[in-house]
Write a structure and sequence with these properties.
With 218 residues, the protein is an alpha+beta fold. The chain has a single domain, classed as Cyclic Phosphodiesterase, Chain: A (Alpha-Beta Complex). Helix content is 29%, strand content 27%. It has five helices and eight strands; from the N terminus they run αβαβαββαβαβββ. It has helices at residues 2-8, 43-49, 85-98, 132-149, 174-190; strands at residues 31-37, 58-66, 109-118, 122-129, 162-167, 194-197, 201-207, 210-216. The strands form two sheets. It has a four-stranded antiparallel sheet with strand order 2-1-7-8, with helices on one face. Strand 3 (109-118) and strand 4 form a beta hairpin. It is globular. The chain starts with a helix and ends with a strand.
Amino acid sequence: MAQMEANERPRYPAGVPGKFSSDGTLQHWAGNTIICHIPPSSPVYHSIESVIEELSLHMTIFEGVSDQVRRPGYWPADLALDATQESCNEDFEKKLRKFSLGPEAAAPYRMVLKGIDILDVGVAVRLDGVTPAEVKRLRALRDRLADELQIRHPIHDEYGFHISMVYFLRYPNDEQKRDIEAILKRHFEKMAKDIELGPPEFCLFFNMHEFNPVFYLG
């Protein structure tokens, strides 16, 4: 069964060749998103930066769209599938400038690091709210954004908050996963676990290394 599954999966992990070439070269991958950057002054930022380089450190609040992914559930329902990425950016900006977080969704967001996930696509730090109430209000904010922007991804309800650390260029085998997990587990045990995030940022991106803020949601 394991051999059958390996044969059926794509040759490369999901980020290749769209976000990165098979040799690791950064590729053009455009879109928009709503994120909270990890404060560069925070112990969490310095802990992750000591392990990786050249990756935007942030927690995604709402996924937004990617120009290369145009199908229902990944593109706004009220925008034609052949609309330009620029027109989508403009539509989102217009809607989000009128969007109010309200006191129930206002920053700061208090999160806690829960562990390291070794996935087929890469490595991520798993986050959770410090309390069930914090999780509830972040989920409610995601629901409001989905309604406002007319886009609800297939995993909207199950979405796990995280910080992406690594994108794999090849699928790691079980032994490699164990080695990566052992190294990162030792590092994780020494990391600060609590982090406070500021207001959500509507961002545009053109690759996976740089997410450019347009404005903060208010």
